[in-house]
Specification:
Blueprint lengths: L9 E5 L2 E10 L2 E11 L8 H15 L4 H8 L5 H14 L10 H16 L9 H11 L5 H16 L16 H4 L16 H9 L4 H13 L3 H4 L4 H4 L6 E4 L2 E3 L2 E3 L9 E4 L2 H11 L18 H15 L10 H13 L4 H8 L6 H5 L1 H4 L2 H11 L20 H7 L1
Antiparallel strand pairs: 1-2, 2-3, 4-7, 5-6
């Protein structure tokens, strides 16, 4: 279609209003449109010349005379569902900062559960502030404000991910969060379960098995993520003195995967001397996974640990909060490091947080000084008392004759 200099439209009377007749572009060709502009009778009446002026302002606001509008109107648009697949694939394969594999399931869940049922069959150009307002209305009462904000941002990114040949977004939007009615996130109302040292001591004292006791000692003493702790291999990731644990992989479901949540999660965690002593005693002459399942061949799953072990203990101690998980031990370790004035860069390193400024990058050589790290770990300590054990040995399940024959 050739370049046009624009249109002024045609004002005609309809009832008690002036209407603007104009052309607009569609994938099938040009079509006529009609838009009420102002009243022509009554107290708010306008003359025909004033109606033309208001009509010109409306055309300019809609961008109907621009080349961008022409290109957008005549381009066959994908649906939100189709573009979401392209967008998610691009996030994983792009050269600059691709998202980790661990983020894909949560994004896919947001799309499948909420975004696609509401927006999936809409043409991408139809997904605007009004469409997101309806989506937010459906999510309210079911999801937390923070989750709603995250899902709305995903929808915005999908819409803006459609680019033209020059790399410019085709669907240009001026998002209005007030109109969309996105809820405000109040950090004080967010659920962040926290534990005190007396409560951690109570959890450890309630343990009836060796693996539970070691897990609930190791997590608050190191700040490891539970997925990282369940993937630790005795031979590969723990040194001979049991003073350093290398974080190199994690558990997803019931499988060990060789990637971590972030690049910063690749680290070495130094243990306090009292924890090293307990860890050596717990390992004994064993090999393989530090926390194996009953069969001894696969890792434990976090869902089982949380449902069968952690939650019953929290309920028994009257500490249970809906949504509580093993991350509360990680928060406890963070508070212990801060209270004991652990150097910031070493705190971020041990917890696997991303470096926040250039000063942390300059101090990376200190992270390679194992003796200094061990000295700081001993000074900081673990922040809680370890009660005497009252546990039974964790004996792996014996394999049946059929399994032994099959394995042979």
């Amino acid at each position: 279609m050739s370049r046009r200099c624009g249109q002024r439209g045609y004002i005609e009377p309809k009832g008690n209003k002036w209407h603007l007749r104009y052309w607009y572009d569609t994938p099938e060709g040009r079509a006529h449109g009609s838009q009420p502009i102002c009243y022509r009778v009554g107290k708010e009446k306008k003359t025909e010349s004033e109606a033309y002026r208001l009509g010109a302002e409306w055309l300019a606001a809609q961008g109907i005379n621009t080349e961008e509008h022409l290109q957008a109107a005549t381009t066959p648009f994908a649906t939100f569902r189709q573009q979401s697949e392209v967008w998610l694939e691009g996030l994983q394969t792009r050269t600059r900062r691709p998202i980790p594999k661990t983020s894909v399931p949560s994004i896919q869940s947001a799309l499948n559960c909420w975004l696609l049922p509401s927006l999936g069959d809409m043409a991408l150009r139809e997904v605007n502030n009004a469409a997101l307002r309806q989506l937010v209305g459906k999510m309210k009462g079911h999801l937390a404000p923070k989750t709603i904000n995250t899902y709305v941002n995903i929808a915005k990114e999908v819409v803006e991910s459609l680019l033209n040949e020059d790399g410019e977004p085709v669907c240009v939007r001026k998002w209005n969060n007030d109109f969309i009615d996105v809820p405000i996130v109040n950090r004080r109302e967010q659920r962040r379960p926290k534990l005190k040292k007396e409560q951690i001591r109570g959890i450890i004292a309630s343990c009836k098995t060796e693996w539970e006791r070691m897990l609930y000692i190791l997590c608050p003493a190191t700040g490891m993520r539970i997925a990282e702790a369940l993937a630790v291999d005795i031979n590969e990731h723990i040194n001979a003195e049991c003073s350093v644990i290398q974080i190199r992989r994690q558990v997803k479901g019931n499988k060990v995967v060789h990637y971590l949540k972030t690049e910063a999660a690749h680290r070495d965690v130094d243990l306090a001397p009292c924890i090293s002593k307990l860890l050596r005693k717990y390992i004994g002459s064993r090999t393989g996974l530090l926390f194996p399942s009953k069969t001894g061949r696969t890792p434990m799953t976090y869902s089982n640990v949380r449902r069968r072990s952690l939650h019953p203990k929290l309920v028994a101690l009257e500490l249970y909060i809906p949504g509580a998980g093993m991350h509360c031990f990680r928060r406890f370790r963070n508070s212990v490091l801060k209270k004991n004035r652990c150097p910031d860069h070493l705190e971020n390193y041990w917890l696997g947080h991303e470096n926040r400024d250039i000063g942390h990058e300059y101090s990376e050589q200190l992270q390679e000084d194992v003796e200094w790290r061990q000295e700081i770990a001993a000074q900081v300590g673990i922040g809680f008392d370890i009660p005497e054990p009252s546990v039974v040995p964790n004996v792996p399940k014996k394999r049946s004759k059929k399994e032994l024959v099959k394995a042979a």
